[in-house]
Write a structure and sequence with these properties.
1 helix; 5-stranded mixed beta barrel; 7 strands; mainly beta; OB fold (Dihydrolipoamide Acetyltransferase, E2P); about 130 residues
C-alpha cells in the first residue's frame, strides 16, 4: 500500500525566514510557524497550547516567502510531512520531522496578487546537499 501525507497549518512565523541557495542555484527557505489552540479544562480554567512546526519551501516560492514574510507574519501552509536524519559534528544521530510546503498563503492585511503562491514541484535532493 502506498503512503499518504498531508498537513495543513495556520499560524504565525516565530522568526524571519532563512533563504539559502544550493550549488545548483535552487532556492530553499526555512521558517518556523507557531500554531496555538485554546481549550477549557473541566474546572473551567482556560488554557492555551502552542506547537511549533518547521517548514521548508523550494524554488520561486522560497524566494517570495523570504521577500514578503517576517517574524510574526500570519500564514496558511499546505504541505506534507518529511523526516530526515543526519549525523552531527559530534557523531550523534539526529532526526527532524518538518513540513515541506506546497502552498503558502500570506494572511492578514490587504493581500496583493503576489502574496499567494500555488503548489510548485519539489526538487528532491540528496541529504548532503540540504543547507539546514
Amino acid at each position: 500500500m502506498r503512503g499518504y501525507s498531508k498537513v495543513i497549518i495556520m499560524g504565525n512565523l516565530t522568526r524571519d525566514p532563512e533563504l539559502k541557495y544550493l550549488p545548483s542555484g535552487t532556492a530553499v527557505t526555512s521558517f518556523t510557524v507557531a500554531v496555538s489552540r485554546n481549550y477549557v479544562l473541566q474546572s473551567g480554567e482556560q488554557r492555551e497550547e502552542t506547537s511549533f512546526f518547521s517548514v521548508i519551501v523550494w524554488g520561486k516560492q522560497a524566494e517570495n516567502c523570504n521577500q514578503f514574510l517576517k517574524k510574526g507574519s500570519p500564514v496558511f501552509v499546505d504541505g506534507r510531512l518529511r523526516q530526515r536524519s543526519w549525523e552531527d559534528k559530534d557523531g550523534q544521530r539526529r532526526s527532524v520531522v518538518e513540513i515541506v510546503g506546497f502552498t503558502v498563503q500570506f494572511l492578514g492585511g490587504r493581500p496583493s496578487p503576489e502574496q499567494e503562491f500555488e503548489e510548485q514541484e519539489e526538487i528532491p535532493l540528496p541529504e548532503e546537499e540540504l543547507p539546514f
